[in-house]
Amino acid sequence: MQDLPAPPVVTTVYQGEFRISADPNECLVTILGSCVATCFYDPIARVGGVNHFLLPNGSASDGSNLRYGIHSMELLINGLLKAGVAKKELRAKVFGGAQMLDEFSNIGERNAEFAFGFLDAENIPCVSKSTLGNQARRIKFWPATGRVQQLLVARTEVPKPQKAPNTIGSSAADIELF
């Protein structure tokens, strides 16, 4: 009787998180809009990890440092080094940074620029990328091999919020206190 392969383990990486794994059956999944995910892997050690950050840089004293790219990248790389990765063997794949809503600043572009600048400063080659545009992405990453699948999510138009009626000049009788 032949042994069946182990079922895949799917782990979701949410905004402001990162995950490291050497399990060949584990797939790390995240969904990105203007956020960026950097998938790191070492093809020799067969260990990798992914982060999901919301903003390029900043400081947070409330424990939400991982939402900032600078903290997320540093913690992920340090975790990979502790897991046996050789920094000189690290490879990166970068995803996200879309312009999701026309009304907002282009935070996605700033996130992508940060990720590429960080990789350049750390001498980590980016071997694949899919950034910018105006569509969300669903990323599946197998950290032990560096394999990535990307699904572009169809863009839908978000209705513009209706302007609230002008209530200046309302009388006190129009106000209900509870």
Structure overview:
By secondary structure, this protein is of the alpha+beta class. The protein has one domain: 60s Ribosomal Protein L30, Chain: A (2-Layer Sandwich), CATH 3.30.1330.200. The protein has two helices and nine strands. The termini are far apart.
- The third-level CATH topology is 60s Ribosomal Protein L30, Chain: A
- Overall 3D form: globular
CATH class: Alpha Beta
Alpha carbon gyration radius:
21 Å
List low-pLDDT spans: none
* N- to C-terminal distance: 72 Å
- Pattern of helices and strands: EEEEEHEHEEE
Q: Which CATH-level-2 architecture?
A: 2-Layer Sandwich
- Total domain modules: 1
| Helical/strand content category | alpha+beta
Q: What can be said about the biggest beta sheet?
A: 5 strands, mixed
Question: What is the structure about, briefly put?
Answer:
The protein is α+β, with helices and mostly antiparallel strands and 178 residues long. It has two helices and nine strands. The N and C termini lie far apart (72 Å).
